[in-house]
Amino acid sequence: MPASRSVTRAVGAVLDLAPRRGEVSLTRLVDAVSEDRGRPIELTTADLPPGVCGQWRQYVDRDVFLIQKGLPAWDRTLAHELGHLVLGHEGIPVVDAALENTEMASSDLISYMLNQRTGCMGPNGEDLEQEAEDFAALLLYRLGRLPSDRASIVQVRLGEAFG
Fold this sequence. Notes:
mainly alpha; single chain; three-stranded mixed β-sheet
């Protein structure tokens, strides 16, 4: 299934922020998005719960992308979390998720839940996850086709369009 128009537009907007000189890498794109938004985005690794490869955490003064320690291919996870951010996925607050899913909870359970990804829980959660996955796949595909110097970006996009 092809990516939706909103995903395609979001990937195009992120690639438009790419530096004009030098290598265009995923981490440089994250830096460019951060600069464009005027809000820091930190990248860090963490021991996340089993089955969780990455998390996007929003703080008052910054955003943090957590990537599971030891993940063999972290670029897909980073692109996925970036997709959530640029696509405007808000999810629900961690406290609301905890209240909806527990009546009585031990401190261990609360700690576990606060470490879980809650950004896409609730109605349409699976759709938002799929949209972030589509964003990651398309961004990495296009990033892999970019020349090291963006002078020929038009040629790359024409090649994508016409094969």
